[in-house]
Amino acid sequence: MVIKDLVAKEIFEQSGYVAPAYSPGLIIRLDANENPFSLQEPLKKKLLEEMGKVDFNRYPKAGSPRLRERFAQYFGVDRDMVMLGNGSDELIQILCLTFKGKINGVLVPVPAFVMYKIIAVNTGNKVVEVPLEQNFDLDTEAMLGKIEINFPALVFLSYPNSPTGNLFSRDKIEAIIKKSPGVVVVDEAYAAFSGDTLVPLLKKYDNLIILKTLSKQGMASMRLGFLIGNKDIIAQLDKVRLPYNINSLSQIAANFFLDYSMEFASQVQEVIKRRAELYLALQEIAGIKPYPSRANFIYFSCIFDSDRIYINLTAAGIYVKNLNKPPRMTNCMRVTVGNLEENATFIKVLKSVISELGA
Ligand SMILES: Cc1ncc(COP(=O)(O)O)c(C=O)c1O
Fold first, then answer.
1. How far apart are CA 199 and CA 187, in angstroms?
2. Which residues line ligand 1 (CB under 6 A)?
3. End of a domain among 217, 245, 261?
4. Which of 19, 110, 119, 237 has a C-alpha 20 to 30 A away from that of 87?
């Protein structure tokens, strides 16, 4: 058997997403944009008690109807405008499967969240990439030009953008929604940290879909993503969604998140404070240029070899994201905002790594 002859060329040739293999022991994870704060013990106990009531021999509630209703209320939309996914990654996959083929592929600005391209390619879609402007805003002219020529079924935009952390201009996003023949997906994975949302625009545009996730707000382990939008689109997506995509434990965790949403919201506020401090600390290091962020991470470039910085940070047990890729992201990295101690340790070790490199 020659595997290469059996697998789609596009899948065979792409490298896929590589999650880091964290070394055992005490490490600081500032690479995956997780919430640095774990659940407080009494709350964790409550959640585990609820989970203990699960009938492990039974399938979960298909389609999670009660949760859809609760989250619709939470997001301020109608009940049939919400769909749940096993993380928003799964919802991106469902979108790419549903809209594949009829019209022409997927449009993404770059740099963007890498899974848009990986999932689009894996589901047999053609991907068109358009570089962002120098200030990381959308190049509307280039995007609209590609829309006219390529007629994409899906456009993916993150608001705030990952990995750059900025919010695209609203008028540019609206121009793209108006001109798109297909669906424009605005991914609000980091919206809690920006204090901004495009949810009100759902009333105005029937081709707008918004994605949300609990992964960045303290529930990454439970894999809970949300898609909000036009109920007629959701009716189609629902046919592609696997029946039991949200397992019973995750359904309990989702309800728990809503029951204690104030706790999670106060953690977000804390992260926002830490972000301002981390930004200033990075700014003070000669040779490092951090970019303002509306998310729970900071994108920065350096005048040093970021591969070496990454290796030395990892050796010290500190994981960040090395994005080093010419020309646009040469020697660029992304660091998740951690708690007070994690940020202080990261800054201290980063400084010593830079001085060791002889910079
Ligand atoms: C922009 C963006 N969207 C979606 C996701 C994935 O979220 P989830 O954990 O819900 O699959 C991420 C994760 O890093 C992200 O950065």
1. 11
2. 33, 87-89, 113, 158, 162, 187, 189, 213, 215, 225
3. 261
4. 110
Identify the domain containing residue 200 by its residue range. Answer: 56-261
Domain at 168, CATH number: 3.40.640.10
pLDDT in tens, 124-183: 999 999 999 999 999 999 999 999 999 999 999 999 999 999 999 999 999 999 999 999
Token digits of residue 52: 């203990």
299-326: pLDDT as tens digits: 999 999 999 999 999 999 999 999 999 8
| For ligand 1, mutation pick of 17, 18, 89, 117 (most atoms within 8 Å of CB) | 89
Q: Give the closest residue to 67 by CA, choosing from 230, 252, 260.
A: 252
CB-CB contact of 357 with 315 (8 Å): no
User: Does residue 244 belong to any structural domain of this protein?
Assistant: yes
Do residues 230 and 279 share a domain? no
* Residue of 88, 187, 320 with the most ligand 1 atoms within 8 Å of its CB, for mutation: 88
Give the distance (Å) from ligand 1 centre to CA of residue 213.
7
Dihedrals phi, psi of 112, to nearest 5 degrees: -145, 175
Q: Residue 190 Cα, ligand 1 centroid: separation in angstroms?
A: 8
Are the C-beta atoms of residues 211 and 187 closer than 8 Å to each other? Answer: yes
- Distance, in Å, from the CA atom of 160 to the CA atom of 323, rounded to the nearest integer, reads 18
Question: 36-50: per-residue pLDDT in tens?
Answer: 999 999 999 999 999
Q: Answer whether 183's CB lies under 8 Å from 162's CB.
A: no
Of 223, 242, 261, the one marking the end of a domain is: 261
